[in-house]
Amino acid sequence: MTDFFDGIPAICHEGPESDNEFAFRHYNPDEMVMGRRMEDHLRFAAAWWHSFAWPGGDPFGGQTLDRPWFGDTMDHARIKADAAFEMFAILGVPFFCFHDADIRPEGRSFAESLRNFEEIVDYIGRKMETQRTRLLWGTANLFSHRRFMAGAATNPDPDVFAWSAATVKACMDATHRLGGQNYVLWGGREGYETLLNTDLGRERRQAGRFLQMVVDHKHRIGFQGTILIEPKPQEPSKHQYDYDVATVYGFLKDFGLEHEVKVNIEQGHAILAGHSFEHEIALAASLGIFGSIDMNRNDYQSGWDTDQFPDSVPEMARAYYEILRAGGFATGGTNFDAKIRRQSLDPADLILAHVGAMDVCARALKAAAALFRDGALERARAERYAGWETPAAKAMLDTGTLESISASVLSRGIDPQPRSGRQERLENLWNRFA
Ligand code: XLS
Ligand code: NI
Ligand code: NI
């Protein structure tokens, strides 16, 4: 037990009229939405790194936050875990996520880091026996330490590849042991700073082999969860190999892993890649690789990954609409890969950041569900493509050749007439709900 959150009550649903700051207005875990409990739709997770390991630094200044668990001893790591589970309980979040480096102090050797890690994983495991919070995903931090400055799997030094593989093995084993539902790979430094010193083809092959080993290990240990890649176009590297959903899909196809690996899509990363969040979700769903989301936005003026909690219901509603269309989450969920601002010093700031974000997502889900149930948007979409439902159109697509189609165009004497795309009408429809 810590006294860090003293005086902060467990957050309950009090409804939209409540003026209690420490209450949910919209997130009501047991409320049914399209036949499923809201908690089971949204599957919220809190991120260990931003909430408990980040000191408040930015490129121009260091630590602003003062936390009793800052320090690199095992005692600090245990206090950090205590505080983390206290926050999970206050919020009632069903899940959390972590990197190895978030939860354990770095040792003087690989073996010592591993011992530290396994000890804290056991400690977390014991906490999970008495608390309902489960593990959404585990991952390895293969980007902070200077040994990873030129990449992990894509490093020019085979020993860094080896170190990374051994680290991922430990993190996958721990995720499995804690009953994690997914394992995430985000390749922060799997990219390059300059092509002048980079063999792009070789690095990509190294990353492909690495991922094949990850999938192989998953089957070896009998891990039932989903392996997820988290696309991001750049930052920290100039160019990251898992740029966006389309790039990741091409990569998976290349290495024969498109049925083994899905994606964890982050709102801010989608925007950095020049897409919208809903575009990335819709594309992943259409390719059969939609897995999970990181629900954190960037500041639209700053132009970098500011990892802020979501604050816009209409924007998030677009995302949840696509998730509902995709049939909802399976093993995935909504991870707040988000941090408070460096001036948000108070323990209450950390709690209320999550409370607000959970309410934004709940409202967005409800709006998306209302529109989805209404069905008008889906009917309009189906109607737009109705011509493709005729046997002749289907046959053309399945077995047509340019020759047969050309003959048919001449014999039928067709003259296609343009039809309205009805965009504004659909936008008006959308705005009745969100
Ligand atoms: C960084 C990423 C990172 C991953 C996990 O931009 O979002 O936080 O989610 O390594
Ligand atoms: Ni992320
Ligand atoms: Ni990110």
Can you walk me through this structure?
- By secondary structure, the protein is an alpha/beta fold.
- It has two domains: 27-374, TIM Barrel (Alpha-Beta Barrel); 378-433, no CATH class.
- The protein contains 16 helices and 14 strands.
- It has an eight-stranded parallel barrel, surrounded by five helices.
- The mean pLDDT is 98.
- The structure holds D-xylose and nickel (II) ion (2 copies).
- One nickel (II) ion (NI) binds next to loops.
Q: What are the salient characteristics of this protein?
A:
alpha/beta; 16 helices; about 425 residues; binds nickel (II) ion; single chain; binds D-xylose; 8-stranded parallel barrel; globular
In short:
With 434 residues, the chain is an alpha/beta fold. The protein has helices at 38-42, 48-53, 74-91, 100-103, 110-130, 158-177, 200-221, 245-254, 267-272, 277-287, 313-325, 347-374, 376-384, 391-399, 402-412, 423-433, and strands at residues 12-13, 23-24, 32-33, 36-37, 44-47, 95-99, 134-139, 182-185, 191-192, 226-229, 239-240, 261-266, 290-294, 334-336.
